[in-house]
Amino acid sequence: MAHQSSDISKLPREAVLAGFITTMVGFTSSFAVVLTGLSQAGASDSQASSGLLSLTFLVGVASIVLSLRHRIPITVAWSTPGAALLASLSVGSFSFAQSVGAFIVSGLLIVLTGLIPILQKLLSAIPVPIAQAMLAGILIPLCLKPFLALGTIPLAATVILLVFVLGLRFVPRYAVALSMGAALVYGLIHISRTGTWSMVQPLPSIEFVVPEFSWQAIASISLPLFIVTMASQNIPGVAVMSSFGYATPWRSSMVATGVGSAAGALFGGHAINLAAISAALAAGEGAGKDPRQRWKASAFSGVFYLIFATGSALLASLAMLSPAGLFEAAAGLALLATLSNAMRGAMKEPRWQLSALATMLVAAGNVTLFGIGGAFWALLIGLLTHIIAERIARR
């Protein structure tokens, strides 16, 4: 422990700044997606706020622990694609207790993936175009929100869209964070005009949720949440780390994030995982010239997440008191880049294009049969389409 304290005392300013930017970008660009997803999964306002607090705290702890243990810049984040999946659920599909039970199952699947090598191989066997198409289909309705909001809250939607476009022009890395900031400012103005300051919750609070286990919720939430978290976050996160010359400790990373996901579910959180895009901020040269010392940036990213956790309830209440659809629109802008990447991944290989398109359309339509949501059927129909219409046709 003394050795660790000595290391941190020599912390370069680049690592502190990189850690702060990593947290700022990761948190501000997607906390609205988390709140939207949890609310759609059946959470009350207080439960959604508790879920955001739980996720922020666990992301911070996991980033610190993994970075200190392995001395490489392992950055943890919440599952933004997973939150988008939840946001695609039909209202009233499941009680939040059933959703929490499904979150726990998904977390346990992540743990097993780290402990049992064959599960990692089975996961890798899921065709990339189908997994990416499912994610794209989930994201399409959410990414329409900013543009649909032009018809319901025209002034607010125009403001955040304009800030987003100007951000892309001048500071593209921070365009999403700036648009989220614009939504916060507009929300503050709205709260001042409506005189609802008394409803703002300044202090964080945690709320325990007793889980219920439903096979429909497990099929609709657990399996798709596990797949999108692994395919869109954990596996790309390993690839990002590899591009900077770091070998990610798969076993301990999956166990830590899986256990964290299952534990956080009891307080409303859906899933945490290895960071993908924001991982580059802590692993790149901006975190310091010496690659052996960049773990300090990810560790301090975790520290800043713990600080942000204290303000999570305040942000959640501000979002919930803002004009209806405002933060859903901001969340849609935050997911545009993810949608673009998913579409490219889905349609890249000609021999998978038909099945990928079928997967995408079924997921976008959120077809629900036998109480099971669209993401599950999208995977099934996509695979069947490939086998029947593409593989057999080629033969």
3D architecture notes:
The structure is a single chain. It contains 20 helices and two strands. The radius of gyration is 20 Å and the shape is globular. The longest helix has 29 residues. It has one domain. By secondary structure, the chain is an all-alpha fold.
Order of helices and strands: HHHHEHHHHHHHHHEHHHHHHH
Q: What is the radius of gyration computed over CA atoms, rounded to a whole number of angstroms?
A: 20 Å
Separation of termini? 62 Å
Q: Which secondary-structure class do the elements indicate?
A: mainly alpha
Short description:
With 395 residues, the protein is mainly α. The protein is 72% helix and 2% strand.
Give the helices and strands, then pairings.
Layout: H1 2-9, H2 13-28, H3 31-40, H4 45-70, E1 76-78, H5 80-87, H6 96-115, H7 117-124, H8 128-143, H9 145-148, H10 154-170, H11 175-194, H12 215-243, H13 250-265, E2 272-274, H14 279-283, H15 295-309, H16 312-321, H17 326-334, H18 336-347, H19 353-365, H20 374-394
